[in-house]
Design goal:
alpha/beta; binds cobalamin; single chain; pyruvate-formate lyase- activating enzyme; 7-stranded mixed sheet; 480 residues; Rossmann fold; 6-stranded parallel sheet; 20 helices; binds iron/sulfur cluster; 15 strands
């Protein structure tokens, strides 16, 4: 039987993620995981389509109609933890109207809880654990799905039993994968958060590596501990085609920890300089404060890097140690200073409500953010995601408050959630909710920040964003 595959990014809107007030600042990102899978399926001549529901503003019913009319034999759905409930309902609707379809689930949530996901979502038949490219092709080649036991890295349902197959090793050479099938995505619909782009122009994302050797307790690290990168030639060629096809002037370079291998980073930066790409585009990335030094930062700057996002997480050394971040307050301060010195702007990520955190320590974190003074700061409420060390420890201690995965959202302060998965002892939801808003107000509503932003305004778009942001912050003082 010849299979036709449809891959779905499920309908979770910006409002679902960020709440009413913050939705206008959220990103609509390319679902590159399923685009990678689609690229590999295409290379094996297996027909595939992508439905990116958030980008196209589709509801569960809209997606179901698309699938029924398309008559696909394999329906793949990507799932992160907070979208669980939406995916469950989508699977129910699809099965109700189109029982012949084989539903395959994949993504971070499935990778960490494969058996449980299959037990909780009755209408799905297969759950993919880890990287999906090779797995999906093998599923599509498994005639009538008779040989699923031969497909590594899945859990599947057979005679009311859930069977787990042999573990699939991570892909060693990422270059065996063609570039993500961006031609199947509505590329004109994507935009990063305002803090990540320079001006109004379009900024696509490219993934250059997978895997991270560090062990932060809050991170899912679903691509394993070994850093695996695309070759420099492949990266340059993918960037070149993005420049040619989409006429871009900026790009977001994604990797679990881009700067962890100095040789790779230097090679990539030198190639960007030698090819002259650094004169055509500028780029942004994420990094760790202990993996860069002044020399590296200067090279990155020369290669076109204009912004780095660092997870500073907290202003308390005690908490940095508890979350196993492996860095010191001094290192954070030093790297922020050096990054600014070489002329790269910074987005700082900070976590509130970490295990055992006191209110005083939250205030220290907000103060630390102000002292570090990155261009942008993001404060999220700690969510122990399943599959992380933090979740394991809190679960064992009986401190997880809800297993309703819809509540696993780091923006619960702005969403006004009535329940969140974890609250440090002696503290309350109301306090944390208010704290998340207060943190942003205290960081952004300062004369120096106001002047800094006024100076960066280059267009009506910038001006509008600036005033909308200011208004949302002022208004948040009076909301729940
Ligand atoms: C970019 C990014 C985003 C982007 C885009 C997300 C997207 N849809 O791709 C944005 C900003 C939207 C985002 C949002 C959120 N994110 Co995010 N994000 C990432 C990040 C940094 C990279 C994702 C990526 O592109 N990976 C590269 C591609 C190749 O991998 P992939 O998408 O996982 O896909 C592979 C496999 O998972 C699998 N697969 C995926 N889908 C499917 C489907 C099928 C059918 C199959 C067979 C296989 C399969 O095959 C793919 C190819 O190998 C990851 C960290 C990471 N390293 O993964 C966090 C990460 C995925 N995010 C995470 C979280 C928590 C969130 C938020 C919940 C945060 C929040 N606001 O509260 C939201 C949820 C949004 C949502 N719709 O559910 C967690 C997920 C944890 C979890 N248990 O779900 C991660 C792992 C980071 C972490 N903290 O550990 N995120
Ligand atoms: S948070 Fe970043 S540095 Fe820490 S384990 Fe995850 S990917 Fe690695």
């Amino acid at each position: 039987m010849k299979h036709t595959v449809v891959l779905i990014n499920p309908p979770m809107s910006l409002e679902d993620r960020y709440g009413k007030d913050m939705k206008q600042f959220g990103a609509v990102s390319e679902p590159l995981g399923i685009a990678y899978i689609a690229g590999y399926l295409e290379s094996q001549n297996i027909p595939v389509r992508i439905i990116d529901a958030p980008a196209l503003n589709l509801t569960i019913d809209d997606v179901t109609k698309e699938i029924v009319h398309g008559q696909y034999t394999i329906i793949g759905i990507s799932m992160l933890t907070p979208v669980f409930g939406i995916v469950k309902e989508l699977c129910r609707k699809i099965k109700e109207t189109y029982p012949e379809g084989m539903i395959v689930l994949g993504g971070a949530h499935c990778t960490v809880l494969p058996e449980r996901t299959l037990k909780e979502i009755n209408d799905a038949q297969i759950v993919c654990i880890g990287e999906g490219e090779l797995t999906m092709v093998e599923i599509a080649k498994a005639d009538d799905f008779a040989n699923l036991d031969q497909v590594m890295g899945i859990c599947y349902r057979s005679n009311n039993k859930v069977i787990r197959t042999e573990t699939r090793p991570f892909i060693k050479n990422l270059d065996i994968l063609p570039p993500p099938a961006r031609s199947l995505l509505p590329m004109e619909k994507y935009h990063l958060t305002a803090s990540r782009v320079s001006g109004e122009s379009y900024c696509p994302t490219i993934i250059v590596a997978r895997g991270c050797p560090f062990s932060c307790t809050f991170c899912s690290r679903t691509f394993g501990r070994t850093f695996r990168a695309h070759s420099i030639e492949r990266i340059i060629s993918e960037i070149r085609s993005l420049i040619n096809e989409y006429n871009i002037s900026q790009i977001n370079i994604e990797a679990d920890t881009l700067t962890v291998k100095k040789d790779f980073l230097k090679g990539m930066c030198n190639a960007l300089i030698e090819s002259g790409i650094n004169r055509k585009i500028k780029w942004t990335c994420e990094s760790r404060v202990d993996t860069v030094d002044e020399e590296t930062l200067r090279l990155m700057r020369k290669a076109g890097c204009w912004q780095i996002s660092y997870g500073a997480e907290t202003g308390s050394q005690r908490l940095l140690d508890i979350i196993n971040k492996g860095v010191t307050i001094k290192q954070i301060e030093n790297t922020f200073r050096l990054t600014k010195k070489v002329g790269i702007t910074i987005r700082g990520f900070f976590m509130l409500g970490l295990p055992t955190e006191t209110r005083e320590e939250s205030m220290t974190t907000i103060g630390f953010a102000k002292k570090l003074n990155p261009l942008w700061a993001q404060f999220t409420i700690t969510v122990p995601y399943p599959g992380t060390k933090m979740f394991e420890d809190l679960d064992q201690a009986g401190k997880i408050r809800t297993y309703d995965w819809a509540k696993y959202n780091t923006w619960s302060g702005w969403k006004g959630e009535d329940e969140i998965p974890f609250i440090p002892e002696g503290r309350t939801i109301e306090e944390l909710r208010k704290l998340q808003k207060q943190a942003l107000r205290q960081f952004y509503i300062r004369p120096s920040v106001f002047i800094r932003f006024i100076k960066t305004i280059q267009s009506f778009y910038d001006l509008k964003k600036f005033f909308m942001g200011f208004w949302v912050l002022v208004k948040s003082r009076f909301s729940r």
